[in-house]
Input
Amino acid sequence: MDFQIVMELSAVATIIGVIVSYFTFHKTSKLSYITQERKEWRADIRKIVDELEVCPFSKKKRVLTKLKTRINTYGKLTEDVGKDSHIWKQIEIIENCRVKEYEKQKDKLILFLSLLLKDDWERAKKEVIGEPAKGIITVCLSFAIIFSWIGIFQANGINIRDVKEVQKGIIYTSPGMILIIMGLIGCFLMINVLKQHCEGEIVVIDVIWTMALIFGVLILTFGNKLSIFIQAAIGMIIFSGVLSLLLDIGKYVQGKRYKSYVDKIKGDEKSGSK
Output
């Protein structure tokens, strides 16, 4: 009997391992592709910088047109520095400047592009470092689901050593657990969508959902004696939320730093013109 339980638990662990391995492989493949694309993009920007450095006033249009196809087009329609809005403005200034102002404005554009390259390189490094953390989050949430399931069995008096009781418990609790899993997936998808459309507030979103998670857990468990499995599941879920928050704080800080450097270049230009 005990051997059968061990085999079933091993099978569950194997399935989880396969799922985690699949997602890890998928993310690694996608990361490799994106990394290669960004490497080629950085090489293109460097070539444009070299061309821009020696480009005379009469041939500026060709180089600037080439640059326009390598930067974020959304930046032309917004004031978001993270979408290259400052580069689009500088391109427009160069397109309309006089010959005597050309070299000065061109140097400023080269500074912006150099800063863009540095920022992209730093983001690429942090994304590679952050991939293991995302894997840890996935593993923690997977085990949180398993531990929650076991905790539900114990709360309902199901002996996890009794195979027949466990089988019945799985049958009766599967619909509820599937709903919980679907709810978690839906929440994460919704959070990711919010982050994509509210880039400046990603940390705020993380703080809100992490605090909501903690308070929700406290409300649901207040006054109840929890099994060690439920406690472990709660701990893993909260740990995953905090780890996600820390990753996004890093992105937020880097974005703020990049904007401050852009503002400094603009400030140096203003002070130099006085």
About this structure: The chain has a mean pLDDT of 76.
